[in-house]
Inverse folding.
């Protein structure tokens, strides 16, 4: 998020001084690290939680269209950076990887058919294929059919335009661009305090990992892009807009294999359907990942609980975030999400064998000796006050900004990395209302669809999707 915002600002206002504080000894070691997230360029091509079934049986595609539209904004920005030579060969961070949805059971097959019918003529989903034929599905994903009962009803959709993104590589590349342009990246520098000064600047207190002396820096504008730790830092800033917000951390694990013979047979990201009542982050998926040019497979996520707000956070993060103003929303959100609590407890106590069976539902021939566990990043889900209820747990992300636009931060989790560009453009609109008009031409150069919706204009969608795919060397 910070790398994206910094790059956008350095394009729009090259003379501005940018300083980045990172508490670890390198960037992209938390959620944006490739092994801490799923690397799915979230375009709702395969994630079934974006296309719920209505009570009348029809499919609501509005969230899917919105998420796809957001990802197209990110793709355009990245294509602009490749075209201008700012970013190197796109395969250093993005790779064409077909996206599939795969379901079993008669009801799920019917659901997937209806979803495909609702999406297939939409300009952002053109090319989506549907099949209930085992041989066809096997040709798309060879590991998924052998070992499956012939009587089991199955169905899949596939769309070649899907991508796998190494958000860690992208983050490091963007920070490289920023430092080349004169920004300062202070590693091993943990921000511990944010305070508004009388003359309207923000006083940033930070500590180096070595030594206990606090350092101080001043800024006109601060973006708190601290991932899971953004809540605590925004609370420290004292802005009233953060009142009532809380966070609920969910940890996770993936299974990974680097066995080349297995990896060579799975050239897609395949998302399944979450069990009824389980949260969106529990959707199981078997993904081909390309990290540092090397392919491997990842399956998960398995959820868990840890009170840390960052993978390398503190055991006290959750407790330290509790304030009088967010106590009621946090308790209310907890009571209103007993299903999630039950799901997490179920995941925590699940035996290793039971967890592995979830993978075998996708890949019946999977052998435990080929797979090992990796710990994923922490997701801190947003808890906030709600007009109808006392507090709600929210999936997705939320920008919280002071009324005067001098400080803003990002709360929440997925999708985040894929939608970083539209989220950060939204932040610019919110925090710099007096400048946004003069930035419009620049934004339209970086994101040709800026200010419009591709889903409303099939001809423009075709031009934009084709040209970004050509530049990024991915499928249309
Ligand atoms: C299991 C999992 C799967 C996911 N899958 C996807 C996916 O497939 N697609 C997708 O789009 N999104 C996905 N996401 C979400 C995505 O990873 C995040 O939205 C995104 O990486 C967040 O980026 P960020 O810059 O806000 O945070 P981060 O990448 O976490 O960066 C925050 C940085 O701030 C630093 N920091 C924290 N506190 C301080 C401090 N006090 N001082 C200085 N530095 C500090 C941290 O060390 C870290 O480097 C997933 C997340 C998880 C956990």
């Amino acid at each position: 998020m910070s790398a994206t915002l910094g790059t956008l600002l350095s394009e729009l206002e090259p003379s501005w001084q940018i300083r980045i504080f990172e508490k670890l000894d390198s960037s992209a070691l938390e959620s944006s690290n490739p092994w801490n997230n799923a690397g799915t360029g979230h375009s709702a091509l395969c994630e079934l939680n974006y296309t719920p079934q209505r009570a009348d049986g029809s499919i609501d595609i509005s969230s899917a269209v919105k998420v796809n539209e957001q990802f197209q904004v990110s793709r355009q920005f990245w294509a602009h950076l490749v075209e201008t030579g700012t970013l190197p060969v796109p395969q250093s961070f993005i790779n064409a990887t077909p996206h599939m949805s795969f379901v079993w059971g008669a009801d799920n097959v019917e659901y997937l058919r209806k979803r495909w019918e609702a999406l297939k003529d939409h300009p952002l989903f053109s090319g989506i294929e549907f099949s209930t034929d085992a041989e066809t599905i096997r040709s798309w994903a060879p590991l998924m059919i052998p070992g499956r009962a012939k009587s089991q009803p199955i169905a899949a959709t596939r769309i070649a335009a899907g991508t796998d993104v190494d958000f860690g590589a992208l983050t490091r590349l963007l920070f490289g661009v920023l430092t080349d342009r004169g920004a300062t990246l202070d590693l091993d520098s943990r921000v511990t305090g944010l305070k508004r000064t009388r003359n309207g600047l923000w006083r940033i207190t930070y500590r180096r990992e070595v030594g206990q002396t606090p350092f101080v820096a001043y800024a006109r504008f601060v973006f708190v892009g601290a991932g899971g730790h953004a809540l605590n830092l925004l609370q420290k800033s004292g802005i009233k807009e953060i009142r009532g917000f809380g966070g609920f951390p969910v940890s996770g694990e993936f299974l990974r294999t680097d066995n080349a013979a297995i990896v060579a047979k799975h050239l897609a990201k395949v998302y399944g359907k979450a069990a009824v009542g389980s949260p969106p982050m529990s959707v199981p998926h078997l993904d081909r990942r390309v990290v540092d040019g090397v392919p491997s497979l990842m399956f998960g996520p398995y959820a868990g609980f840890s009170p840390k707000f960052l993978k390398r956070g503190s055991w006290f993060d959750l407790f330290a975030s509790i304030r009088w103003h967010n106590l009621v929303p946090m308790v209310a959100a907890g009571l209103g999400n007993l299903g999630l609590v039950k799901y997490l407890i179920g995941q925590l106590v699940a035996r290793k064998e039971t967890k592995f069976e979830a993978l075998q539902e996708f890949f019946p021939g999977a052998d435990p000796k080929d797979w090992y566990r990796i710990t994923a990043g922490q997701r801190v889900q947003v808890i906030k006050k709600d007009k109808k209820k006392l507090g709600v747990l929210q999936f997705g992300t939320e920008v919280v900004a002071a009324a005067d636009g001098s400080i803003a931060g990002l709360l929440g989790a997925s999708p985040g990395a894929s939608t970083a560009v539209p989220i950060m453009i939204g932040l610019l609109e919110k925090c710099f209302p007096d400048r946004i008009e003069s930035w419009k031409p620049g934004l339209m150069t970086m994101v040709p669809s800026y200010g419009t919706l591709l889903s409303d204009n099939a001809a423009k969608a075709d031009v934009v999707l084709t040209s970004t795919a050509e530049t990024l060397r991915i499928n249309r």
